[in-house]
Design goal:
Layout (H helix, E strand, L loop, with lengths): L7 E5 L3 E2 L5 E2 L2 E8 L9 E5 L26 E2 L4 E2 L4 E5 L31 H14 L7 E5 L1 H12 L6 E5 L7 H15 L17 H15 L2 H7 L24 H16 L2 H13 L10 H4 L6 E7 L7 H13 L4 E6 L13 H19 L1
Parallel strand pairs: 5-8, 5-9, 6-7, 9-10, 10-11, 11-12
Antiparallel strand pairs: 1-4, 2-3, 4-8
Length: 380
């Protein structure tokens, strides 16, 4: 069962100081809520989204039956994060292209579209903006903050920036920072965008064009990293789109789409280029690259996580090579060094990084059990 939901927007007039040293003047955040905030206002769960997701975490829009939120299998009535018990909030990050103030909006100080001039954003900036929205909703303390991938980084950052406002943190398929390999993938994707002739230095809006070629390639690169080798082989193998009859020669074309995996990647790239903003892609991947709470502590993650007061559930997936289980275990060990309460689940799943979005019974069962524990705490 999926809830019918309606996006909401909250505007803020007070500038937001940012880690880059700049500040964002008046801005708006788009968000959705699911369930009911209880009288004690202590059953709120903030869900933070990953790179190409949004505030639309769960439920459907009226009259749009195929509009399920990106984590609808996880959140809703009777689901692992049960909205009959919890008040769930999804917020679209600043700099995104799904409603919150971003590069496609007008800079109130210049009267021009922000474009490439939108301030550099960090995970910490997103958390600060989310905290302001929670303040406006009258929520002083979260029962939990939860996220997968980049959303998991935000959940971790919440426990460090606002340690007294978070009871539990659920960090799924994430890492304490990006490896050099991950940064390299992001940079190749960014170069694909900025070298597109239609990019125009990030001010393509003024030219009435979109750098779709660059976005397509960026998405194809990213999508490869989200899947495991096993899944790609199982789904596509070396199958050709047009199976040749016995005795027929291969077409040996350098331009045509020959293999099924090529067709799949081009389809994903085409879809992505129709709805995602190029400047947003640059901003969000940079935020991923910059996140590193241990940097201020000489690279010592245990020292960085000493500020956290929350209890944690950390989840990883065996075939996730972009955010490998090793990276999750680094978080677990650093928390244990600080004698924090930590539950850790490493799920043996074939789906790669995308596993955090899928219907693995063991994974959903782990999350359900953890949130049942939180619900019992709230009843005490």
């Amino acid at each position: 069962m999926s809830l019918e939901v309606t996006p909401q927007t909250m505007s803020f007039d007070e500038p937001l100081p940012m880690r880059s040293g700049s500040s964002l003047p008046a801005y708006s955040l788009t968000y959705e809520t699911y369930g009911t905030l209880n009288e004690r206002r202590d059953n709120a769960v903030l869900v933070c989204h990953a790179l190409n997701a949004s505030h639309h975490v769960a439920g459907v829009y009226a009259g749009q039956p195929k509009s399920e939120g990106w984590w609808d299998n996880m959140i809703g009535p009777g689901k692992p994060v049960d909205t009959d018990r919890f008040f769930v909030i999804g917020i679209n990050n600043l700099g995104s292209c799904f409603g919150s103030t971003g590069p496609m909006h007008v800079n109130p100080e210049t009267g021009r579209v922000w474009g490439a001039d939108f301030p550099v954003v960090t995970v910490e900036d997103w958390v600060d903006a989310q905290a302001r929205l929670l303040d406006a909703l009258g929520i002083d303390k979260l029962a939990a903050v939860m996220g997968g991938s980049l959303g998991g980084m935000q959940a971790l950052s919440w426990t460090l920036q606002y340690p007294d406002r978070v009871r539990h943190a659920v960090v799924v398929a994430s890492a304490p920072n990006l490896t050099a390999e991950n940064i390299a993938f992001n940079e190749v994707a960014r170069r694909a965008i900025v070298t597109d002739p239609d990019f125009h230095g990030g001010h393509f809006y003024e030219h009435g064009v979109l750098p779709k070629r660059g976005l397509r390639i960026a998405r194809m690169i990213g999508h490869i990293t989200y899947l495991s080798d096993d899944v790609m082989n199982e789904k596509f193998g070396r199958e050709l789109r047009h199976a040749a009859a016995e005795g027929d020669a291969y077409r040996y074309s350098t331009q045509d789409v020959e293999f099924q995996i090529e067709s799949y990647l081009r389809h994903q790239g085409d879809k992505f280029s129709e709805y995602f903003d190029a400047n947003t892609y640059l901003l969000i991947t940079r935020a991923l690259d910059y996140f590193d709470p241990a940097r201020a502590f000489g690279g010592k993650l245990s020292a960085a996580l000493a500020a956290a007061q929350a209890a944690f559930l950390i989840v990883s997936f065996s075939t996730d090579w972009r955010f490998s289980p090793k990276r999750s275990r680094e978080i677990v060990h650093a928390l244990l060094d600080n004698r924090r309460r930590v539950s850790y689940a490493e799920i043996d799943a074939p789906h790669g990084h995308d596993a955090f979005l899928l219907d693995d019974v063991r994974y959903l069962g782990v999350v359900r059990a953890y949130f049942e524990g939180i619900a019992k705490e709230l009843m005490q």
